[in-house]
Amino acid sequence: MSTSIDSPTPAIGRIDPESISQRFAASAPSDIIRWAVDTFGDGLLMTSSFGAESMCLIHLLTRAKPDVRIVLVNTGYLFHQTLIFMEEMRRRYGLNVLEYHSHHDPLVYLTVHGETDPRIRRDVEGCCRDNKNEVFDRAMRELAPAAWVRGVRADQSATRSRMQVVQWNTRVNAWAISPLLNWNHRQIFEYMKYHNLPFHPLWQQGYTSIGCNPETCTRPTATDGDPRGGRWGGLDKKECGIHLDQGAGI
Ligand code: SF4
Question: What phi and psi values does residue 228 have, to the nearest 5 degrees?
């Protein structure tokens, strides 16, 4: 049986995530985004890593709401190509990017935590907690969105396959909306080609999912392999934690 949840924003009213997610199960991402913009307006924001295919969701959302807030979590260990790419996209498309930084100086952090080789990370969980999750949580607290648009897809991991297009996220205290959830890699690629959207510069070098620069965290992906297979290769880790909502068990 589906359950309705009272939104903390009276104008938004009651949202039934299960029936809405069912309604959107076969919908085009643009239809989901139209609903989100009409429902949440300026209360909407999106996160983006400015990774391999990030311009797909940015393009979809900014067509409907050009001034939407786009949050980039800067851990201090992003590829320099990512930051250059973000600045280029910000200028070219007039994006409203809000960059949130780790409180830690990247070099000092490695020294203090005994990380002697910057190309690898021995304590991945600790580093993600201190330099990624803290930054994300701080950004969400400060920006207090009514709804958060994210680029997860069901075919990326078992965790993501259990997500719904629209669901309440207790961690962010907002609705989490995943317009690309039921799209596959090929549909993203075709959308980007059709709209002549740029890929991250490392995409051509085989990086199909791009996070931080240590080899522990991002490697090129085998051509016929899992698109996220280059993330934390060899570790039992598929998520940095941003998309994990402990409160909802997701
Ligand atoms: S992905 Fe790697 S470098 Fe980035 S915050 Fe997590 S452990 Fe640190």
Answer: -100, 10
